[in-house]
Amino acid sequence: MITASIFLIGLFVGSFLGVLVDRIPKKKNFIKGRSHCENCKKELGVLDLIPVLSFIFLKGKCRYCHARLPYFYPIIEICTGIIFALTYIFLILNSQFSIFNPLSLITLLYYLLIVSSFIVIFFTDLKYGIIPDKIIFLAIAVNIFYLLIFNSSFLILHLVSGFGAFIFFVLISYIFFSITKKQGMGGGDIKLSFLLGLFLGFPGIIVALYLAFLTGGVLSIILIVWKKKAFLKDTLPFGPFLIAGTVISLFWGNQIYLYALSLLGM
Ligand SMILES: [Zn+2]
Q1: Entry pTM
Q2: Which of 130, 164, 187 is the last residue of a domain?
Q3: pLDDT in the model for residue 58
Q4: 96 and 205 share a domain?
């Protein structure tokens, strides 16, 4: 019941995140201006703005001009709902979580804030090739604040993990640049790596980076072979892989890490 409610809240938060994704790169005011149809510019009413349901009832078309609505919004809404629900389940399984305990609620809020920032970064990078600084710095501040106040025994470990990931990315982008004379890893990826290390700590960040490089690498090779893209010419945005690796690592990182150790016979 609570999981379902959190999924529903996720759908609504997701529709707000979708607006952020669309407006941050265009530097539009996202607090004031209301949502409107991209095609006919007509302002959308309350009934047009119910997450997912509006899209289904309108059969994916604008009520006024019947232009196709982008799938983008319902996809973000559903992703946010699912990730919110998974985050809640993760907390129940991994801590003495009680919805009536204020400390548990703060922890839940903290995780939901951070995964929301991940969802914005994922889709902004995917759609516009931009990792917004504002979101990264905000998420870093929330992370440090939370660790300082509620989890100070882990602060150092998480800071070190963040700096470790950061230095690793600076090195990689330096090596990539000196070989190809092209900038492969953007500054956004490097800043993002610090946030992810800070959030996951060790060994979570190792699992996340491993998954990101594995999936990003495999997909690049598929694209190169399939579309016969010139190698290293078109680079995929790497942010979405980092975020996906981080979310998987958050939920299943410990299992993956222990499994990897057992494979190595440790
Ligand atoms: Zn319209």
Answers
A1: 0.89
A2: 130
A3: 86
A4: no
**Residue 63 Cα to ligand 1 middle (Å):** 7
4 and 120: one domain? yes
Query: Residues near 181 by Cβ (< 8 Å), separated by ≥ 6?
Result: none
Residue 162's SS3 state is helix
Q: Which residue has the higher pLDDT, 125 or 225?
A: 125
CA of 68 to the centre of ligand 1 (A): 8
> What letter would DSSP give residue 1?
-
If you measure from the C-alpha of residue 58 to the centroid of ligand 1, how many angstroms do you get, rounded to a whole number? 11
pLDDT in the model for residue 131:
92
Three-state SS at 33:
coil
Ligand 1 centroid vs 72 CA: distance in angstroms? 16
56 within a domain of the structure (yes/no):
yes
| Residue 143 Cα to ligand 1 middle (Å) | 40
> What is the total count of domains within the chain?
2
Range(s) of the domain holding residue 81: 1-130
Q: Are residue 126 and residue 7 in the same domain, yes or no? A: yes
Residues with CB under 5 A from ligand 1 (ion): 37, 39-40, 62, 64-65
What is the rounded average pLDDT of the residues 209-219? 91
81 C-alpha to ligand 1 centroid (Å): 26
Answer whether residue 135 is part of any domain: no
pLDDT-derived band of residue 48, with 50, 70 and 90 as boundaries?
Answer: confident
Residues 181 and 225 in one domain: yes
Going by C-alpha positions, the residue among 53, 34, 30 that lies closest to residue 45 is 34
Sequence-ordered list of residues with C-beta below 8 angstroms from that of 40, at least 6 positions apart, any chain: 62, 64, 65, 67
Are 153 and 186 members of one domain?
yes
Predicted local confidence at residue 31, as pLDDT: 53
Q: How far is the CA of 42 from the centre of ligand 1 (A)?
A: 6
